[in-house]
Amino acid sequence: MTDYDVLTLGETMLRFTPPGVQRIDQAAHFELEVGGSESNTSVGLARLGLKVAWLSRLPSNPLGKRIARTLAGQGVDTSHVVWAAGERLGLYFVEFGDGPRPTQVTYDRADSAMSRMQPDELPAALFEPGRARHLHLTGITVAISQSAAATARRAVELAKAAGMTVSFDVNYRAKLWSPAEARAGCHAFAAAADIFFTPLRDAETIYGVDGDPGRALAQLQAEYPQATVILTLGAEGAIGAEPGQTSISQSVFPAGTVGRIGGGDAFTAGVLYGYLTETTAESRLATALRWGAAAAAFKYTIPGDMPLFEKEEVAALLRSGNQTPQVRR
């Protein structure tokens, strides 16, 4: 038994959203949410029943404390967060569109506390053998600063030395770096990963792969032969393959449109849950993809960034295979 099933490392911000589909310059007030890719995944994993610790660096002020308390309230261990006096929290603003007006995201995260994190601020005791089973990272952490990237690289080194498995999600953000920078920055992490996630659109942009999912998957398998490669395909579902194996496809479950932000993080949480709990190696990837698809579909019904589902709800969707609205009395 380990203390934690999963460790994650990354930045979490406060999200400001005008009510409904108002524009920012119309809004008299904003709705406030907590959001960050790795912490969203952490919350999903915790709500599915796994033991998760989220590692980060937060300002020691009411904004940073709100982040930590919110995540802790969802069952995520935040006790290893590094607290930084006199620093700032990253913020972002989401303006939801409608019709021809797209949803717009505006970041205010430069020089945040997390972007200043250093490798020696990692809790080394958590990376001792037997403390945790798995480490999950994304390309966002690598992109926000050189010191955050160095911290992520050190986390991978420590995790591997401790016998942990590692997953890496490209999670490309064009406002943080160029495709060429992303490919160079993500390569070492993808090459070290046991599970490598990327949306097909990001793989086309960054790696120049074929637009056909099967051929794109084969190209990434050739690039990263040690990894289980998982491509998400939007409305077409997902496709994945374990090292040296043929591909497995997973269709989407019927989903809503209420809360699509964070859907990819919920998918990752579901996949990691299936991957870490399925005891039969032959069915591990298929089980993981089904949990991922069901978790993402459920997240699409929930406003905000975090996947606030219950394990029983996701499991029921897996069993039924549909999402027919019902009134439960």
Quick gist of this model?
This protein is an alpha/beta fold and 329 residues long. It has ten helices and 14 strands.
Explain what the structure shows.
There is one protein chain. The chain has 329 residues and is an alpha/beta fold. It has a domain at 38-56 and 78-88 and 118-317: UDP-N-acetylmuramoyl-L-alanine:D-glutamate ligase, CATH 3.40.1190.20. The protein is built from 10 helices and 14 strands. It has helices at residues 37-47, 62-73, 139-144, 146-161, 179-192, 200-207, 213-223, 263-277, 284-299, 311-320, and strands at 4-9, 13-17, 31-35, 52-55, 57-59, 82-84, 91-95, 104-108, 132-138, 165-169, 195-199, 228-232, 238-241, 248-250. The chain has an 8-stranded mixed β-sheet with strand order 4-1-9-10-11-12-13-14, sandwiched between helices. A hairpin with a 6-residue loop joins strand 13 (238-241) and strand 14. The protein is globular and about 50 Å long.
Characteristics:
329 residues; alpha/beta; UDP-N-acetylmuramoyl-L-alanine:D-glutamate ligase; eight-stranded mixed β-sheet; four-stranded mixed β-sheet; 10 helices; 14 strands; 20% strand
Secondary structure elements and their pairing?
Blueprint: E1 4-9, E2 13-17, E3 31-35, H1 37-47, E4 52-55, E5 57-59, H2 62-73, E6 82-84, E7 91-95, E8 104-108, E9 132-138, H3 139-144, H4 146-161, E10 165-169, H5 179-192, E11 195-199, H6 200-207, H7 213-223, E12 228-232, E13 238-241, E14 248-250, H8 263-277, H9 284-299, H10 311-320
Parallel strand pairs: 1-4, 1-9, 2-7, 5-6, 9-10, 10-11, 11-12
Antiparallel strand pairs: 2-3, 7-8, 12-13, 13-14
Helix pairs in contact: 1-8, 8-9, 9-10
